[in-house]
Fold ATP-binding cassette domain-containing protein.
Amino acid sequence: MRQESKPTGARAGAGIVLESLTKCYGPITALDGVDLAVRAGELVTLVGPSGSGKSTILRLIAGLERPDRGRVVVGDRDVVDVPPQQRSVAMVFQDYALYPHLTVQDNLLFGLRVRKVPRAEATRRAREAAERLGIAELLDRHPDEMSGGQRQRVALARALVRDPSVYLLDEPLASLDTQLRTTTRADLLAIHRQLGTTTLHVTHDQAEAMTLGDRVVVIEGGRVRQAGAPQDVYDEPADTFVARFLGSPPMNLVPGGGVLGDSTGVVVGIRPEDLALDSEGPIAATVEAVEALGNEAVLLTRCADGTRLAIRTEPRLGLLTGDAVRLSPDARRVHRFDAGTGRRL
Ligand SMILES: Nc1ncnc2c1ncn2[C@@H]1O[C@H](COP(=O)(O)OP(=O)(O)OP(=O)(O)O)[C@@H](O)[C@H]1O
């Protein structure tokens, strides 16, 4: 079980409430009535496919765009008519958006100068933020003299320096390689534990969504499909979309139940790790492909009636394409969804 992040810092930032948030770009409905409440101090990840509306949610909270309908409440005020610089919200973009002609130090100080923070205090805050993100030795460099990972840390430090009530992070780790992403993710988590500032974090990355957030919110087609603790959403997906979106390989879904037990009007689902190879198992299948991943293998199998089932197994079983296997589903982990609406039953 992951623990709720417990801030050791003084502040928890401001809560956020989105009510019936709707945003259209010409004929495109980017957001279609989004309701979401984020508690002060909570770290929430937004996940969803490309174009689902995640960035639009952040831009509306930051004030970079105006909703067509609905309310955006930060702290205790509706901010729809408040200009972005007065919202106490810091946004970090995937492409850093640093000033190329300024040094790291001046990039960090820029926002504070605009806000007329006294120089000594501004310099102290810049140094503190740089140390937190491990870039203190880069303060005299320009953005083009740094790696992508270092630039991303500068962008995060620039948000920290502002000491906002809310952080909005738009895929801030997406352009980092796997190793750097893992370490920066751990740093983000540590910073959130320390400061406890309300954070909305957009990501494509499942591991990031599962490990980083107190809650995960799954967005699709401009709507919230499900919001909840990551493990709860994984264990009890609200519909077939969420069932297939979280988890890799995705949940096996069998319309009508079929090999998983006939069930009219129902789509029956089972995750690949909940199907075991078992010589006494009720389902006969043939191995179509073996994906060996080192620590595990994914078997893609096909049953006599054509149903395809993916299974996670140990990597060293020596199974080959064409082998006959028998499978046993874990009955406690079978999911049932309405065939018409896709909703969990
Ligand atoms: N300025 C704009 N003009 C027109 N359409 C836009 C604009 N911004 C976003 N959209 C559209 O609104 C929808 C939601 O976009 P948004 O950027 O919020 O998605 P996203 O989930 O953040 O996607 P990604 O993960 O690819 O960044 C998409 O269909 C997108 O094409």
Residues 249 and 343 are 21 Å apart (CA to CA). Helices lie at 54-62, 104-114, 119-132, 148-161, 178-195, 206-212, 230-235, 240-245. The first strand starts at residue 16 and ends at 25.
